[in-house]
Amino acid sequence: MDKKISTALVVDDNTVNQRIHRKLLDNLGIQSETVANGKEAVDVHISGKNFDLILMDLEMPIMNGIEATRKLREMGIRSMIAGVSTRSLEEEKQEFMKAGLDDFQEKPLTVAKLVSILHKLNRK
Amino acid sequence: MLGWGVERLRADMNRLLALLFHQGVLDEQFLQLQQLQDESSPNFVYDVVNIYFNESEKLLRNLRTLLMDREFSDYKKMGIHLNQFMGSSSSIGAKRVSNVCVAFRAASEQNNRSGCLRALELLEHEYCYLKNKLHEFFQMEQQRALAAGVRYPMQN
């Protein structure tokens, strides 16, 4: 049975990407919120909110995607976390995955890449 | 008569886009943006591109300010600005701008100030060309919308 994905958190310090990622999610019927860095992503979960999916950028000020993912997993957050980044150095990607990602997609995010992430979420 | 004007404008817009694709100024990611536009966000592409313009001009000013400082050595800060610029450029399909950012970042990672200066000149040139062409595109879109009797945001 397919899991219903209804909420997502967009974690990205880039306003253009925030806007595009939210629209991608909106067009698939997924409600989303945005935060501008890893610390805000952690704080929003500490406040009690939870999301089916987290789209996590890698390079962000204050707290990057790797630290934020690690911290969220340590907090027991079991949401699907998909890393999305323009950086594609293999070592960085491996470190990002090891921090607790369920999936990684290179930016720019497209409908096809987001659907691929959602299919993985359904199989989780 | 009105219909003919709308169709002519649409053809002009398609020709301009084809040229920009042929020149490598835009890539298929721009088409992805257009496909996201719908009735609930009829000006989505225009809005996103304007956000991109505002952000890019801040980043270009920051990069120029950094490099014009004779005591400049903060390549890490430069790298942060470049990652931002590269990320948003690739997200809207600004391929040539994005490619120049890659070369710029490479010079920055080698602490190569003269290479960075050359890359900045090229980046400003490519960005200016892109902005002018996209303004042209959106002006045509505005005329087409007016001709078709559709509301469109006034451009600055």
Description:
Chain A: This is Response regulatory domain-containing protein. Chain A: The modification 4-aspartylphosphate is found at residue 57. Chain A: Residues 7-122 form the Response regulatory domain. The complex is a heterodimer of chains A (124) and B (156). By secondary structure, chain A is α/β, with parallel strands linked by helices. Chain A has a single domain, classed as Rossmann fold (3-Layer(aba) Sandwich), CATH 3.40.50.2300. Chain A has helices at residues 15-27, 38-46, 65-74, 90-98, 111-123; strands at residues 7-11, 31-35, 53-57, 80-85, 103-106. In chain A, helix 3 (65-74) packs parallel to helix 4 (90-98). The longest helix of chain A is centred in the N-terminal third of the chain and has 13 residues, at 15-27. Chain B has one domain (2-149): Four Helix Bundle (Hemerythrin (Met), subunit A). In chain B, 79% of the residues lie in helices and 0% in strands. In chain B, helix 1 packs antiparallel against helix 6 (113-147), helix 3 packs antiparallel against helix 4 and helix 3 packs antiparallel against helix 6 (113-147). Chains A and B meet through helix 1 of A and helix 2, helix 3 and helix 4 of B.
Summarize the structure.
Chain A has helices spanning about 15-25, 40-45, 65-75, 90-100, 110-124, and strands at about 5-10, 30-35, 55, 80-85, 105. Chain A has about 120 residues and is an alpha/beta fold. In chain A, helix 4 (about 90-100) links the parallel strand 4 (about 80-85) and strand 5 (about 105).
